[in-house]
Design goal:
The chain has 403 residues and is of the alpha/beta class. The protein has ten helices and 18 strands. It has two domains: 171 residues, D-serine dehydratase-like domain (Lyase, Ornithine Decarboxylase, Chain A, domain 1, Beta Barrel); 165 residues, TIM Barrel (Alpha-Beta Barrel), CATH 3.20.20.10. It starts with 26 loop residues before the first strand and ends with a strand.
Length: 403
Amino acid sequence: MSHDHPLIDKGSAAMGAALVSDVSLPALVLHRAALEHNIRWMQDFVSASGAQLAPHGKTSMTPALFDRQLAAGAWGITLASATQTRAAYAHGVRRVLMANQLVGQPNMALIAELLGDPAFEFHCMVDHPDNVADLGAYFAARGLRLNVMIEYGVVGGRCGCRSESQVLALAAAIAAQPALALSGIEGYEGVIHGEHAEAGIRAFADSLVRLAVQLQDAGAFAQAQPIITASGSAWYDLIAESFAAHNAQGRFLGVLRPGSYIAHDHGIYQQAQCGVLARRHDLHEGLRPALEVWAHVQSLPEPGLAVVALGKRDVAYDAGLPLALRRYRPGVLPAEGDDVSACTVTAVMDQHAFMTVGAGVQLRVGDIIAFGTSHPCLVFDKWRVGLLVDDELRVVEVMETCF
């Protein structure tokens, strides 16, 4: 007897499958209407700000989403590593802003191979003379020229030069490497926190633009319109305002790189969006949560306690536990799912979530719970496929990830 069976990824389904009856749960669910709204909304916002959009692809690493973002007008895709860049290239992406340093010869080799394609445009970050020297030697030996951007950071933050003087010195080191072309300057404001974060972010953005002007006036850039880029998914409005206010002559190509907006969430980015809307009264509607994780009630072992077949292998838990949104009975599609927001997830293990059952909520084993999440970057990476569903909760596309 043969025991050969095809492998089935968790949460996979056939086209047209009904989410409430035909899909092995847990599953990563993307709601098409909200997803399409978010893609249009952010592209419109960035375009109206006079900037370009390079969505951070590390959020989803889902080529089908890259395709939609590029088709909607994105300038390119931001990525975080050489392997992510290779994956995106394999699925048709031809302009990449790698918002990270390219370190180590095996990683350099991955990019060097792609640079053999004249249609491929690539930029990576540098923040130290050691990396500049290594990149210069490696790409010179292969007759290639690499676009690099200086990363400018903040004390106590992540990567990046810590002072304006370091930026200027690094620009001189790049100029001494014929195989390197300084194509712009980059920063990331998401590491600025605290009571006065807004003022700190505005000051950082102003400093970033001031440095770009200094470098351009000194003839440090290899292109007439160098790139200036920043912005995660929380403070993109402030970065857009700063770029617009200080770039009236169009000296630079301003590029914003939010990533989580495409799926949004029910946690940290929903809170951040409230801040955006409070600052920008002209924006009448914001982003919509498009991502949920669906799972079954597995056990009701004690009064007031439900154990759900959903765990750390399935959902983010670093920025808040999943939120119970709606309950469906298997095979039943009501006009609206039953509200279970009175239920609270209190802890997650590898494959289980512990959920207190709110007053008046009647659960049975086998019920389906739709959960909202916080921090979509650490939800997508737990899945090989996500299910795009329509308003009737039927699968209209199975989207593969490539982490």
